[in-house]
TrEMBL record:
Keyword Transcription on entry: yes
Keywords: DNA-binding, Transcription, Transcription regulation
Domain of life: Bacteria
The protein's name in its UniProt record: HTH tetR-type domain-containing protein
Cross-referenced SUPFAM superfamilies: Homeodomain-like, Tetracyclin repressor-like, C-terminal domain
Chain ranges of the HTH tetR-type domain: 11-71
Length: 194
């Protein structure tokens, strides 16, 4: 069987599958979403799905990788300030997440192939957690944040944003306004004190 098409080379069917799978995995979880339902929603056959993604695990891995790539892009623009970069990340997460992303990461425990689990953990660490921790460390060096463990600050920020995913309607806010509030709240709490 051929390997999964790399994200940069996705054709229309592979993109469609990923686009439709993302909200369905959020809504139903890894175990709750059947590939039959996904194929029906996509208007594609199971052999077509398996042409692009060898297994449900591989599909879930690619869905998560695609999202993490977007998060990485949001915090990578070095021309922006720390709050602006954090706001970009928070806005994307609030806009695109209908459920708690930590619950989606917990779904990884259902993976049967340990290599897939190792791969997504490495992608998460390399493309989201470490760049976010580096951003926190740089902000601490510039006096914007206290000099706590940067990885702990990164996890704290992700946890704060995660708490509000899928809940913006309760506050009558759009994603950008919600992100701005969350970043201000985080920056106030993590600010360097003298």
């Amino acid at each position: 069987m051929k390997p999964c098409t790399p994200p940069g080379a996705l054709n229309e069917n592979a993109r469609l599958i990923l686009d439709i799978a993302w909200p369905l995995f959020q809504q139903k979880g890894y175990r709750g979403l059947s590939l039959d339902e996904l194929c029906e929603r996509c208007g594609l056959t199971k052999p077509t799905l398996y042409y692009y993604f060898q297994s449900k695990e591989n599909l879930y891995l690619q869905v998560l990788k695609r999202q993490i790539d977007g998060y990485h892009t949001a915090i990578s623009d070095e021309t922006l300030t720390t709050p602006q970069r954090l706001e970009n990340l928070a806005a994307i997460m609030l806009e695109q997440m209908n459920s708690n992303w930590l619950a989606m990461l917990r779904d990884l425990e259902h993976f049967k192939n340990p290599e897939n689990l190792t791969q997504i953990r490495a992608i998460f660490a390399r493309d989201l957690l470490q760049p976010l921790a580096n951003l926190m460390e740089n902000a601490a060096q510039q006096g914007e944040l206290r000099s706590d463990d940067p990885e702990l600050l990164a996890w704290s920020f992700l946890g704060l944003v995660s708490t509000f995913t899928g809940r913006l309607a309760l506050f009558d806010q759009d994603a950008q306004a919600g992100a701005r509030w969350l970043v201000n709240f985080f920056m106030q709490g993590a600010r360097q004190t003298h």
